């Protein structure tokens, strides 16, 4: 079975991509509005792009009715945001922040999520997240007028203490249980893992 991209509608392309590019990491992003309201929202077209500089990217599309999402409005105002990775204990709360909240309502306040101050930017972070990366905007790329790619440069990293061996610079995988996005409202656990010996190639 095969399709040409040009023969498909955007919705059909979305269905194919989100059905097979799995699982996708989730950026749980906090931003701050001009009036001081703290917003939190998840984005699953997301990944990191490198370490020098430490860049991440996530995509923000328009709402179905054409409105610009609060996250993008806030980033355009402040050029700052925090990207969090969520784990199983926080997965339900992360999912709930994806609802359509009005701009004057803070998702963390509404859901009882604890906030902590950031070190380098004025946007607070979610205190209980296993990992948080304070970011400044590196670049905004408009895509067809209905989606913006947000590239952020990581300025500071916050890691839950028990998850990190600071001497070996290694994550304690038996304690870290991030969740991934599948499609629709489906998510996956990452507890079932496999290891292989180093690949030797032909040499």
Automatic annotation (TrEMBL):
Essential cofactor(s): FMN
InterPro entries recorded: Flavin_Rdtase-like_dom, Split_barrel_FMN-bd
Source organism, top-level taxon: Bacteria
UniProt KW keywords: Flavoprotein, FMN
One Pfam short name: Flavin_Reduct
Residue ranges constituting the Flavin reductase like domain according to the UniProt record: 19-170
Gene3D superfamilies: Electron Transport, Fmn-binding Protein, Chain A
Family, as annotated: Belongs to the flavoredoxin family.
Name assigned to this protein: Flavin reductase family protein
Organism the protein comes from: Bradyrhizobium denitrificans
